[in-house]
Amino acid sequence: MIGGGGAAGNAAAEVLRREGYGGRITMMSADEALPCDRPNLSKGYLAGVASEASNLLRSAKFYQDHAIEVRLGARVTAIDIGSGHIELSGGERLAYGALLLATGAEPVRLDVPGADLPHVHYLRTLADSRALVAKALTSRRAVVIGASFIGLEVAASLRARNVEVQVVAPEKVPMEKILGPELGNFIRRLHESHGVSFHLGTTAVSIDERNVSLRDGAKLEADLVVIGIGVRPATSLAERAGLAIDRGVTVNEYLETSAPRVYAAGDIARWPDRLSGERIRIEHFVVAERQGQTAGRNILGRRERFDAVPFFWTEQYDLGVAYVGHAERWDQVGIDGELEARDCTLSYRRAGKRLAVAVIHRDLEGLRAEVEFERAMVGRCSS
User: All domains of the chain, ordered by start, with CATH?
Assistant: First the structure.
């Protein structure tokens, strides 16, 4: 049984079949659409260069052919660990032999007057993206609240549709906490060269039908507002079931939760990272897929450690940035190459130890860093 229809749940279902599991596989998805390429919702699909059909991870026929039952609009509301049952929102109870929790994350909601108006949008599901595309087609001016990856990717996609965009965020430099000031300022200049205006160091205090009012007194015209101020792991189901929680669902190196035959993967899972020696939780698509694959094999008794090096990427206009590793905290950023030439590697270090790299047009350097981190994890395990 799989609770969740995102990258982790889909990957687990596929692996179970590919590894020869012949029993029943049921994926419970609260979404109304089949599992999709969620990162592309803010990129190609929103920009209008990728079709909806191409955004699905698999067709309906694939699930039928592989005997994977996908129940859409099915929300799991309770887990009975003792008896091995789940309960759906309609009251239906289903037994499981093994359960994978892959409930993902939910957008953080902006708590200001007007945040629930019809022209205010969030972006998490395919339905969200459909609604945003429909609104973008009739909009002239947009305000994006949040200068995160999702916010800036949305800004770039809206500019591709010739919508005027203004970005509002409390930080002084976009994405500085993750990418550092040099790359953050470079990305800001990239957006400004495409006509985006920034209002940094301030926040939205209210929204009405025509404007977004900021704390610094500015008033921005907008017939479309997109809020991208982060997500939080959807852990309420696990909490009610009594599973161990630590800013996510606590799992061991095999992605096992504190309950027998219950696993967790994707945005909700906090696992022991051998590279940093810390427990980490990462909200990235590739990580979720790889964890789903590992969880699927462990459901079959493989006892496989999850040791994949984290990876994510962002595409904004004609710029692609790939990030390998994980540096939740760092005290030094080194740059090899030239940012302005779009040919560089940024290394993120803490106490002299390299924990992550970001590369622009240096794919080979990214692969080398991944190998370096993999070897470091093996060395940590054997020492």
Answer: 2-106+231-299 (3.50.50.60), 109-227 (3.50.50.60), 318-382 (3.30.390.30)
